[in-house]
Amino acid sequence: WHQTERQPKGGENMAKVLIIGAGGVSSVVVHKCAQAAEVFDEIVLASRTRARCDAIAADVKERTGRSIETAQVDADNVPELVALIKRVKPQLVMNIALPYQDLHIMDACLECGANYLDTANYEPLDTAKFEYKWQWAYDDRFREAGLTALLGSGFDPGVTNVFAAWVVKHELDEVNVLDIIDCNAGNHGQAFATNFNPEINIREVTARGRYWEHGQWVETDPLSWSMDYDFPDGIGKKKCYLMYHEELESLALHLPGLVRARFWMTFSDSYINHLKVLGNVGMTRIDPVKFHGQEIVPIQFLAALLPDPASLGPLTKGRTCIGDRLEGLKDGSKKIFYIYNICDHEACYREVGSQAISYTTGVPAMIGAKMIAEGKWKKPGVWNMEQFDPDPFMHDLNIYGLPWKCVAVDEKN
Ligand code: NDP
């Protein structure tokens, strides 16, 4: 840990964390950090709306008996954030707010000497474009400060990166073809709702598709390519759409021998139809329009009308199945592996009061923080998940609620 004035109460690796953001994912992060009392001895939760922090803290108290301190902060206001971090003195700040806050929270961490973690890469508010270049540009400053910044510690990005690193470490000498396939076979019974922040979700899904092939990016029209994939354990065949997803950028750089990398996500016909109509009538626009003398951003207005993802917990049934299919060479022979996790929405709700999309993001965020706290992934600089040893993280996925399987695949599948 970076030196702070505070002496940890417990053992060597006990950590005080400051969690920013109090939405669907954050609720899981706070519950899981509270469960891992052997690592996180103090937890502070701060967000724009303090009442949401208090509601999460009350639920955590009821389920685990642990007390969480709460605070109000606007994470886009760096001086306000710096004052909070200086008062709390955490070893790690977990950014579980929105991608728009990434750079502000990284700036505040550097100023205060705190380590940093997030689950989604920076995106400017006025351009639907996410790229690592803005956050990678902080690498020198984090190195010089002796601080760790861990980027994308959710499921995808996050676990999907670590899955690829684990297969490269244990099963293949090189990966030539990577397909990351995200299936939500759950149903919340709503006509149209997103499983995480609606604005971020719709910006991502309506963007142009992009995949990596032979050393360059190939673009496709939004949701114009699809395939059927037969998911394991009774989930069965689902239609998956090719999308751009941020982990492709870092994996294309860090995986040896990669020829092609793509990302796929399942959507129901109803979801696609709603999205098409909303797009056609301009409701997914991210630029401001004048309405009754006032400027509104249509996608933000739409997000305000849609169900809060955190409210889907009690409604969602079914399972998610997210994994990587990797083709490559082992001792000169072609091999294919499929490595995946299956997560049950109702089981997540019983455990922490959230649906599986929040759960599958929040658990890896806690494990990423634990890796830093235990010194296993503690190295000055800005890092993506696949750059660290995957073994301790993969071990903890099995312990903390996201068990995984890796199977050899017959070439015909
Ligand atoms: P929510 O919209 O449910 O929650 C976001 C929270 O951040 C809200 O509590 C919001 O405050 C707070 N917030 C927003 N702006 C600020 C600000 N300026 N200062 C302080 N707090 C702020 O989002 P989710 O929980 O669904 O998603 C959280 C993050 O997780 C997102 O970045 C998302 O992209 C990422 N994610 C990553 C995944 C992965 O696998 N890697 C998968 C799913 C999500 P308020 O309550 O006032 O609105």
Helices, by number, come to: 14
The helix-and-strand class reads alpha/beta
| Distance between the first and last residues' Cα | 46 Å
The Cα radius of gyration reads: 21 Å
- Low-confidence blocks of residues: 1-10
The count of strands amounts to 18
Strand content: 25-35%
Shape call: globular
Share of helix among residues? 25-40%
Question: What is bound: which ligands?
Answer: NADPH dihydro-nicotinamide-adenine-dinucleotide phosphate
The mean pLDDT is 94
Main β-sheet, in a few words?
Answer: 9 strands, mixed
How would you describe what is shown here?
- The chain has about 425 residues and is α/β, with parallel strands linked by helices.
- About 35% of the residues lie in helices and about 25% in strands.
- The strands form three sheets. Strands 7, 8, 9, 10, 11, 12, 15, 16 and 18 form a nine-stranded mixed sheet that branches. A seven-stranded parallel sheet has the order 3-2-1-4-5-6-17, sandwiched between helices.
- Strand 2, helix 2 and strand 3 (about 70) form a beta-alpha-beta unit.
- Helix 8 (about 200-205) packs across helix 11.
- The longest helix is centred in the C-terminal third of the chain and has 18 residues, at about 355-375.
- NADPH dihydro-nicotinamide-adenine-dinucleotide phosphate binds near residues 96, 99 and 157.
